[in-house]
Design a protein that fits this description.
597 residues; alpha+beta; Creatine Amidinohydrolase, Chain A, domain 1; Creatine Amidinohydrolase; 3 domains; six-stranded mixed β-sheet; 19 helices
Length: 597
């Protein structure tokens, strides 16, 4: 099966053998992860799509792939339109499409370890209206035909010390036990990998760029816990760290362990736990309370130690970005720099830091028209030179032992056009509007989102992604529950009230298909704001990311005096924060790049 067409044909033959008339293929794993290990990359193997969010449906005579606005261009370049129809989310969905396309009486298969219970319920309802049936499979049909499917990672767990976590694992389990008592539950199932990493103060290497380990956990009302993880992954240091309060089991024993909850009350997160977990508990006779994972909000509310670590990580990372931008300035005009060479150089600079453990995601290194592909990933096939008269967009980040970074900068190669400068300045104005926003407690990210879009809307422009996502502490670069996003965003979290201690990105952008992309991204911390005479408790943002914003793309006359003051003050802080990490020509370049306008 050397081609994707061959793989699609093989899947259809396997579905015939399995007496199925279709199959749903999500891009996730048994933990509902955004980024998944190589063993779970079923959608990419079947279709060629390399994005981080999407799904597909295969029927006997047609097939469809579903992506949101971030991947509109990417999916068309990676997935063959002769075999797949492109579907846009949220305008349509897998369940809506099946309702219109599944044959009457069809048996549509799904893997219960890869879907939430809510999705299964909706899909069953949609198919029932069509006279069709949703059928759980015992073994994923893609796994049957994927002969060279990788094995799950065997990397060992590592301890995340309290000096970086800021709170001991035993204390976190005690907090969860108190939460269980409040909800009159005997246990809580944790299936999200970052939740388990946070709760037990461990990290792993099982998912590229996200320091988590493949595991399941159950935390009990007495403060003890059961951790299901491959024994070969747990060394003596981790065993000692976990202590007597944590019982260790093999990961593949988790499914059968669900049968032990007969008569027990178990809290399970309907958004993060797969359907198979609910099925197993229901079959055992457990009483299920559908509640949000009790680690989600505490994980998002960074403690003082985590905030200090994040600031340290940002200062180191900002210095790396400054050195990289200087290198681009010097090397790109010569015509020898391409997207891959640039991202490789940036990674090499980051890896000079002993605190770095990994990148936080595959760098988005987009030159010219490739910069207009929101979640673009350069390859040998798509690689472009950084050509004079174009823009170059670089979105990147690092996983440091004390913090996770994510930053985007856009720079001109040669002289930018007036249109480029206009669009960049509008994006900057939106970025400043978010950075300076002050709002009452209880405000949602959906309410902040339009702050960033207003300058673009004034010119009849917009962008097809959220304005901000939560960020973990040496954990997932995309972390909930908070987001800054439109109400219609296909990504959940926009309705979570923003609260002091949350970290979120501030990343408005503009993308002109076939020509260029612009994005300015910093991470910001939600903080309390003291306002004289205020009648409500107020919040605002403290910027955490410090690296030059390219002044050559700024139209000064488009900025208000307050916006210009913000930019000049920001650049003054850039020199103050990251300058000590630079010397010689690097420091001189930084001071020039941050000179007041």
């Amino acid at each position: 099966m050397s081609s994707y067409a061959d793989r699609l044909a093989a899947l259809r033959e396997q579905l015939k053998t399995d007496r199925l008339d279709g199959f749903v293929v999500p891009l996730t794993d048994e933990h509902m992860s955004e980024y998944v290990g190589s063993y779970a990359q079923r959608l990419a193997w079947l279709t060629g799509f390399q994005g981080s969010a999407g799904s597909a449906v295969v029927l006997p005579e047609e097939a469809a792939i579903f992506v949101d606005g971030r991947y509109t261009l990417q999916v068309r370049s990676q997935v063959d339109g002769k075999h797949w129809s492109y579907q846009s989310v949220p305008e349509t969905s897998v369940t809506d499409w099946l309702k219109d396309h599944a044959a009457k009486g069809a048996r549509i298969g799904y893997d219960p370890w890869l879907h939430t219970g809510d999705w299964v319920k909706k899909a069953k309802e949609s198919l029932a209206s069509r006279g069709a049936e949703l059928v759980a499979v015992g073994e994923n049909p893609i796994d049957k035909i994927w002969r060279e499917r990788p094995e799950p990672s065997k990397a060992r767990l590592v301890v995340q010390p309290d000096e970086y976590a800021g709170k001991g694992a035993a204390e976190k389990r005690t907090d969860i036990a108190e939460w269980l008592e409040k909800h009159q539950a005997d246990a809580a199932v944790l299936s999200a990998l970052d939740s388990i990493a946070w709760a037990f103060n461990v990290r792993g290497q099982d998912v590229t760029h996200t320091p988590v380990a493949l595991a399941y956990a159950v935390v009990n009302s007495d403060g003890t816990a059961d951790l299901f993880v491959a024994g070969e992954k747990v060394g003596p240091d981790v065993r000692q760290h976990l202590g007597n309060g944590v019982r260790l089991h093999e990961r593949d024993e988790f499914e059968s362990a669900l049968s032990q909850f007969s008569g027990k009350t178990v809290a399970v997160d309907p958004e993060r736990a797969v359907s198979a977990i609910f099925d197993g508990l229901e079959k055992a006779g457990a009483k299920i309370i559908p509640l949000r994972d009790p680690t989600v909000l505490p994980k998002a509310l960074k403690n003082a130690v985590e905030i200090a670590g994040q600031k340290s990580a940002q200062a180191r990372d900002g210095a790396v970005i400054a050195r990289f931008l200087k290198w681009i300035d010097e090397e790109a005009p010569g015509g020898d720099v391409d997207e891959l060479k640039a991202s490789d150089h940036l990674e090499a600079l980051r890896r000079e830091n002993p605190e770095l453990r990994d990148l936080s995601f595959d760098s988005i290194s987009g030159a010219g028209p490739n910069g207009a592909i929101v979640h673009y990933k350069s390859s040998e096939k798509t690689n472009r030179k950084l050509e004079t008269g174009t823009l170059y967009l670089i979105d990147s980040g690092g996983q440091y032992v004390d913090g996770t970074t994510d930053i985007t900068r856009t720079v001109p190669i040669g002289e930018p056009t007036d249109e480029m400068r206009d669009r960049f300045t509008r994006v900057l104005k939106g970025h400043i509007a978010v950075a300076t926003a002050v709002f009452p407690k209880g405000t949602r990210g959906t309410q902040i989102d339009s702050f960033a879009r207003r300058p673009l809307w004034d010119a009849g422009l917009d962008y097809a992604h959220g304005t901000g996502h939560g960020v973990g502490s040496f954990l997932a670069v995309h972390e909930g529950p908070q987001r800054i996003a439109p109400v219609t965003s296909s990504q959940s979290g926009g309705d979570e009230p923003l609260a002091a201690g949350m970290i979120v990105s501030n990343e408005p952008g503009y993308y002109k298909t076939g020509e260029y992309g612009i994005r300015i991204e910093n991470l910001v911390l939600v903080v309390d704001k003291q306002i004289e005479g205020a009648e409500k408790e107020m919040l605002g943002f403290e910027t955490l990311t410090f690296a030059p914003i390219d002044r050559r793309l700024v139209v000064k006359d488009m900025l208000s005096p307050q916006e210009l003051d913000w930019l000049n003050d920001y650049h003054s802080q850039v020199v103050e924060k990251i300058g000590p990490n630079l010397s010689g020509a690097d420091r001189e370049w930084l001071e020039e790049a941050c000179a007041p306008i």
